[in-house]
Amino acid sequence: MKLPEICIRKPVLAIVLSLVLTVLGCVGFQRLDIRFFPELELPQVNISTSFEGASAVLMENQITTIIENAIAGVDNIQSISSSSSSGRSSISVQFRLGGNLETEAAQIRDKVSGIQDKLPADVTSPTISVGVAGSSVVGMSFVDDKLSLQDAREYLIRNIQPLFRQLPGVAGVGVYGSTDYAMRVWLNPAKMAARDVTVADIKTAITTNNIYFPAGSFRGKSRNYSIISDTRLKNAKQFRNIIVKSTEDGVVRLKDVAEIKLGMRGFYDIPMRIGNDKGLAIQVSPLGSANPITVANEVVKKFNSIKNNLPSGMRAELLYNNASFLQAAINEAFISIAEAVILVILVVIFFLGSIRAAIIPIVTIPISLISVFFIIKLLGFSINVMSLLAMVLAIGLVVNDAIVMLEKYSSAY
Fold first, then answer.
1. Is the pTM of this model over 0.85?
2. What b/e string do you get for 57-70 counting C-beta neighbours within 10 Å, with b at 16 or more?
């Protein structure tokens, strides 16, 4: 005897089974993760390298090409894409699905480590990240009436940025609107030629005089003391007094052949205006595997607590929160399901011509839709726009099967 026949002969059993499926579906719904798109972790490894002051051509020839040639022999690579700009090189390695991403990423790290000596001496070590970071979900603005943009940026980097980085699911926290401080040394070729000073001499002098090293310790009878060496240069005056070269006529200091000023790290300032004031912005990006709605909600909670504890003169506002748009799309999908159910019920009643005959198809719709959440939970999926739209389409299939079964067994019994 088939299950439909058993349920017709024993309606109490059918009611119990329906209730059990409904309860399991409700439990599964409460434990499901609500996101905008299904979780998708692409097997991708990104290699980023920076070289301050280098042109795009130099980055392409001396860094990007060398790294690409080194990693080309790694197994299971599907594609390699790269871009070179002024001072920055970015390489994305896409692997084929089905491989072991941890092993593949380890091979990439080994290849990059093996060609470190072939890269320019002053280039920063390539940064290797696994996976794809999501797009920015929350943006916040900061305006300070007392501090300069550089000082305000320094405060945000030291005190605010780490608070967002430690939140679960956060991939990156960027500060935009200004650049870091840097000591700018503007060389004078004529003065250098007159004193027989080269660029290498100046570079060596700055490097050897601006160092920080452990000075050791000494032991007393009852205590041990650490020696702190305060040898780092802290202001432009100290840089100006660096001895570049010693000659019979005296010493050549850095101020004799160059102009030293405290400036910005980047050559080009990228100002940002918040309303009518110059300000800064912080943008938070989630991990590719994280739920952007959950991450955005956590960021907003943290922002509200930070907003009330900022220094005097600093104001903060929420620029945008993409989670509200994502949540609105999810809500619209639920509304579409409700509208589809209502319309289908009206159509079924109209064509069957009897509410009593339409009861079975009508009851089947909510039971099927609610029960499917339990299956979604078992499969490890999530509630997202794609699954909700699939449920909208499935309503017609459920009703069609219910009507077919109704016609088949109503004629038999």
1. no
2. ebbbebbbebbbeb
